[in-house]
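Appendix C: a fully annotated inverse folding record. The material below is reproduced so that readers can follow the format used throughout the book. The structure is listed first as tokens, followed by the designed sequence.
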């Protein structure tokens, strides 16, 4: 009975944590809907007046990006902004042949009169954060726009973002990510589905109420004095963007989120690349939770609500740990439920997990309908997409839980950048990409075992008591999710 008590306690706690996140998401939905009805009255520079046009530096931190550098640099050359007020820094830490090809591309653009510099380092100290910090030393711009190698801003991007810095308290302007290859595969559709929720509901929902948001590492602009005032780029976490964002907002800098400005980018097409990205994001989130927790709690300038949203934001990655706990314990809980009829009231209360799912379902629908439409056919498609996303997300829960645990325990690891492939349509192939190699980690084996474990969970529905199918849909989704991740990962190819 002691063992059963421990299982029930852990299961209950995990369910309640998930429910807390669902309630926070519901609050963000309310904020988002209110914000969508308001007209933006923020003051803006008049870029038609030469006296109001500030100097801008575009930083492009790159590392071994052989397949996308030509696309990236040609896109940057199309940016519409006065040439005498614009410089581009290619912060190139590459160690392969792309270093030389990028050098030649930069020289071609320099010959056109573009102020573009190829800045290299002899080491990767600080990784991306180190490269950005190094470039900042010589940056001419009052404002620093940052783009990863797979981002393709539209020519008028600076004209849409820079004007908002007329408010001297604005330290960052962040734009919404778009997806060049959204429909390439099931994997890219699932990633786009999740990112759309973050870049509409969450970012707008927090920003509209003055809660902390984060610069997303790319597709945004910093005021240079804000970076320096907040302590500059630091490399002690894997998400240097989240780290600097919180330090800046704790110093009372304001962030401006622009949902209407879309910046297209390429989603990872190989599951190994998606896993690499997810690992960095989730481990970095946990590291920043440890780093920022006391700073947020001790601040006398933040409201209780802002603190709560800040802590939930920093702890977002821990949600995967709780989902994995609920999933694994749900099968023994099925047997406990049928062995102890007296616990029926408890299990009725624990149906709050279904309510959490319903809340997430409603929140994601608001996002989906704004992008795809609001017809019955759209809603039916959404139902399929939501449960596909939920299944695959749960399939990633083991991988992401390991990242979260490492982050909270302070285990250090290198910054592993997400490889880009220049893949946008089904006619494009990435199989011969030089940054991929065959790997099969023990973790993949565990994911395969979990697929079998949740198949047993489905079987249990038929044999426990006279049949108990309450958790059958949950176990089916877990079986499909871990099965998808396991089978795709067998062919995973990524160069670490």
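Designed amino acids, in order:
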């Amino acid at each position: 009975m002691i063992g059963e008590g421990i299982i029930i306690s852990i299961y209950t706690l995990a369910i309640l944590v998930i429910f807390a996140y669902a309630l926070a998401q519901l609050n963000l939905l309310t904020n988002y809907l209110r914000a969508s009805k308001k007209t933006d009255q923020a003051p803006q520079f008049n870029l038609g007046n030469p006296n109001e046009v500030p100097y801008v530096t575009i930083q492009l931190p790159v590392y071994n990006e052989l397949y996308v550098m030509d696309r990236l640099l040609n896109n940057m050359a199309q940016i519409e902004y006065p040439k005498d007020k614009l410089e581009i820094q290619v912060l190139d830490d590459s160690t392969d042949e792309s270093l030389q090809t990028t050098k030649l591309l930069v020289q071609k653009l320099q010959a056109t009169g573009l102020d573009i510099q190829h800045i290299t380092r002899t080491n990767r100290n600080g990784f991306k954060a180190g490269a950005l910090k190094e470039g900042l030393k010589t940056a001419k711009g009052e404002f620093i726009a940052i783009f990863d190698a797979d981002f393709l801003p539209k020519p008028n991007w600076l004209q849409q973002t820079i004007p908002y810095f007329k408010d001297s308290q604005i330290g960052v302007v962040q734009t919404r990510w778009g997806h060049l290859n959204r429909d390439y595969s099931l994997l890219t559709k699932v990633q786009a589905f999740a990112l759309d929720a973050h870049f509409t509901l969450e970012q707008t929902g927090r920003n509209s109420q003055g809660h902390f948001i984060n610069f997303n590492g790319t597709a945004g602009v910093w005021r240079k004095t804000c970076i320096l005032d907040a302590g500059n780029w630091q490399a002690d976490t894997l998400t240097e963007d989240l780290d600097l964002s919180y330090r800046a907002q704790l110093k009372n800098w304001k962030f401006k989120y622009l949902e209407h400005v879309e910046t297209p980018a390429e989603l990872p097409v190989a599951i190994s690349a998606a896993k690499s990205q997810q690992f960095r994001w989730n481990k970095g989130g946990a590291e920043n939770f440890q780093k920022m927790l006391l700073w947020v709690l001790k601040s006398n300038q933040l409201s209780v609500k802002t603190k709560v949203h800040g802590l939930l934001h920093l702890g977002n990655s821990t949600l995967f740990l709780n989902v994995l706990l609920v999933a694994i314990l749900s099968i023994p809980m099925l047997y406990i439920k049928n062995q102890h009829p007296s616990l029926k009231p408890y299990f009725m209360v624990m149906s709050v997990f279904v309510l959490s799912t319903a809340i997430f379902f409603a929140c994601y629908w608001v996002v989906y309908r704004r992008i795809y439409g609001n017809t019955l056919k759209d809603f039916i498609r959404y139902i399929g997409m939501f449960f596909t996303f939920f299944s695959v997300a749960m399939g990633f829960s083991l991988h992401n839980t390991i990242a979260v645990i490492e982050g909270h325990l302070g285990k250090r690891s290198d910054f592993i950048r997400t490889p880009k492939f220049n893949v946008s349509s089904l006619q494009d192939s990435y199989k011969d990409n030089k940054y991929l190699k065959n790997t099969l980690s023990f973790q993949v084996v565990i994911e395969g075992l979990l697929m079998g474990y949740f198949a047993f969970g489905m079987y249990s529905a038929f044999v426990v008591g006279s049949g108990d199918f309450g958790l059958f849909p949950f176990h089916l989704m877990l079986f499909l999710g871990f099965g998808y991740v396991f089978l795709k990962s067998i062919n995973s190819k990524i160069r670490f």
